Request: fold
Amino acid sequence: MNLRPAAVFGLLKGMVTMNRLLPFLLTVPMLAQANNPHAARLEEAGAVFQEIMGIKEKSIPQELLDKAECAIIVPGVKSGAFIVGAKYGRGFVTCRKPGGGWSAPGAVKMEGGSLGFQIGGSETDVVMLVMNERGAKRLFEKSKFTVGGEAMAAAGPVGRASSAETDATMRAEILSWSRSRGAFAGISVKGSTMREDEDAIKALYGKKLKNSEIVYGNSPAPASAAKLMGLLSKHSSRKGK
Reply:
């Protein structure tokens, strides 16, 4: 193929332009992810779970994690100064998939004036396990779910398996823990409410979805969920259920 000098020049110019644009084109998705506070919070949820499970003697008991149908992680629940005792946080919920593994995460807002934090702190990470399928279904039945109302709740035990065998944990559909200032303990979240975080869902998935559609559907998980889902699978895959 014979190319005229002008054509060769044009081709080379185009290649130089593309080489200049390529780093920019590769950077755009990363910038979009970095500028998405919901993606950052989802990555933080993964970091919270990793740190909690990293302390073997003071983490969530393995039997309880293996029995759980869903996990809810709300990093950095804040105490509101404008209303005495008010709490507010935004987090994520993921549930077991029929063939094993965990679903893409839905997003929730958590609110309540009676969270009963036992270890103090202006910001507290909250972890909840939904222990059976009935509790999981109730979680998604209504737009607003009240912990301790629609499902029995209890503070979760910490540490070795033997500490998990109590009447409260055997009956409860939701078990909950909190971490503040490095301390990890069971916590009562009765009376707190959860609802779908529509803004976070749209930002993470690019469209309006219900949490039930995400958790029980085939929505691909956003990249920012990789750490959380990987850790849940590592610690409790329950394959072939």
Remarks:
- The first strand starts at residue 70 and ends at 79.
- The helical segments are 5-34, 37-53, 62-67, 133-141, 167-171, 198-205, 211-216, 226-235.
